[in-house]
Design a protein that fits this description.
This protein is of the alpha+beta class. The protein has one domain. Helices cover about 30% and strands about 20% of the residues. It is built from 5 helices and 13 strands. The strands form 2 sheets. Strands 1, 2, 3, 8, 9, 10, 11, 12 and 13 form a 9-stranded mixed β-sheet that branches. Strand 11 and strand 12 form a beta hairpin. Helix 1 crosses helix 3 and helix 4 packs parallel to helix 5. The longest helix has about 40 residues.
Length: about 290
């Protein structure tokens, strides 16, 4: 059959029927494939999603490794700070001697938890803050010294050497001192630089013997007071044989503590003039 062939209406104009290929396809008619929805996200986006978890894992690892040590150091620093800023009571003595003295007996009865009797029945107060730090650092509270000596805490506070170095100074009784280089928040432990008898001048020692020779029935030590005007100095009020006086302590550049009376000549004069109770006249006698 000769003649023109009609194209079915179902075949688009310019297209091809099934089983045939178009004669020509230009670049403008070539289809561009679209991105698939399930394609993996870019690498940068993955990293942004994972970094918080990585940080948390790193922190957890550091806490496991360093946490217990950091916690112990924090507790140590709290104990040290409590001693560096300690204020001892001012309304009662730290040590009250003569077990037969009614005042000492009454003090032990009224404050049985705070005060302990020594082997002579005298009342002494060991500061709980210093006791806790001493146990942590490994400092014995009662080293081998004469049994008659009291270990009451008479001073516990921060002091500085004359050249400006910061120290914790503790005095037990009247003449036994402990000087400690404090730890820092960055690490380390408190270091004991000196623990032993303070250096006492001869004039003060002689004045003290005058009072001791007159009357041994009553001794008292109060809580020490840091000098706000001199960061190396602190004082402790005392009574020896009922004669009042004051000890002056100073921290030196060698980390030793020196001790002297503020008025040794006046103390000796008061001690010589002191009349013991049993030698006083009875006011009721005719």
């Amino acid at each position: 059959m000769n003649g023109p062939v009609s194209v079915p209406s179902s075949v688009p104009h310019g297209g091809a029927s099934r089983g045939t290929m178009p004669a020509r396809m230009t670049d403008t008619t070539r289809a561009t494939p679209s991105a698939l929805d399930y394609a993996p996200p870019p690498r940068r986006r993955v990293l942004l999603r994972l970094w918080p978890a990585a940080v948390l894992l790193a922190l957890a690892g550091l806490a496991i490794v360093y946490g217990p040590g950091a916690w112990r150091h924090w507790k140590l620093m709290r104990l040290q700070s409590a001693c560096m800023t300690a204020q001892l009571p001012t309304d009662r003595p730290m040590f009250l001697g003569d077990g037969a003295n009614r005042d000492a007996v009454d003090l032990l009865a009224a404050r049985a938890v705070e005060y302990q009797p020594d082997e002579f029945g005298q009342a002494e107060r060991v500061d709980a803050r210093w006791a806790a730090l001493a146990a942590e650092v490994g400092v014995p509270l009662r080293p081998h010294t004469p049994s008659w000596y009291t270990w009451a805490t008479t001073f516990c506070h921060e002091r500085h050497t004359p050249d400006g170095r910061r120290r914790l100074v503790v005095v037990e009784g009247a003449f036994y001192a402990t000087v400690i280089e404090p730890a820092t928040w960055l690490g380390g432990r408190p270091r004991v630089l000196w623990r032993g008898w303070t250096i006492q001048d001869a004039e003060s020692a002689a004045a003290l013997r005058v009072a001791a020779s007159r009357y041994l029935g009553h001794n008292r030590l109060d809580g020490g007071t840091p000098d706000p005007a001199d960061r190396s100095r602190f004082t402790v009020r005392f009574e020896e044989g009922l004669v009042p006086g004051m000890w002056e302590h100073r921290l030196g550049d060698d980390d030793r503590v020196t001790t002297r009376m503020t008025d040794p000549a006046g103390f000796a004069a008061r001690a010589k003039a002191f009349v013991p109770p049993w030698e006083r006249p009875d006011p009721a006698a005719p």
